[in-house]
Amino acid sequence: MTNERGDEYVTRLAVFIAAIFSIACGSSVEKGAKTPASRGPSAIASRQSDSPSLPPAASNERPEILAIRALYRRINQLVPTCQMHEDDLSGFSLEGGVLRSYRCGDSIPKIVAWYYGETYRNHEEYYLENGRPAFVYTAFERYAGTFGRVIHTDESRFYFAHDRLVRWIDSSGTNVPIESERARARADSVLKEADQVVRRALGDTTALVPRGG
User: Fold this and answer.
1) Rounded mean pLDDT of 133-138?
2) For the chain, which has fewer Cβ within 10 Å, the N-terminal or C-terminal residue?
3) CA atoms of 183 and 160, how far apart (whole Å)
4) By three-state DSSP, how is residue 201 classified?
5) How far apart are CA 170 and CA 61, in angstroms?
6) Any alpha helices (H) in 31-118, and if so which ranges?
7) How high is the pLDDT of residue 74?
8) DSSP state, 182?
């Protein structure tokens, strides 16, 4: 009888110690303990917001802008039900990158890309309608030194209607005149980049060109 009680005591003590150990390990992960899955560009991208905010709509907003804003909201509501595919972009920038496409049936309504360098990271989001960009968000973040904190962010929001730029809001929140030479050149560049990103998301490994810092 004494041996049985001793065995029971040992068993309970072992269960208690295992429970304490499990709780301690769980707490360390929740508090941000480093794990192999938490490292690398893919993990960094997973911790970034995939939905940049839109400036409030004006009371007399143009119908084409309202339509793009509505599409943006619909896509972000749809994305959680889509299948997410992640493509490693190692070799396309100095420290690699990640291309994340959201596939809903036969369509890809949203693509998110991150490119990394020693002194910067570049974030792009493409909201697509029938395979063409309707809204594009770009953010170029400059570090304080090598892999330091972000000290400057240059972001833009582009609105397109049938491949025609209808609004560009720059980093200062200013509506850039869309008929200006600057806007036309930037729109061409964004559309060309969107073509490459969509091709890459569809499986064309020859799409996208290497980027520097």
Assistant:
1) 96
2) N
3) 12
4) helix
5) 18
6) 41-46, 63-78
7) 95
8) H
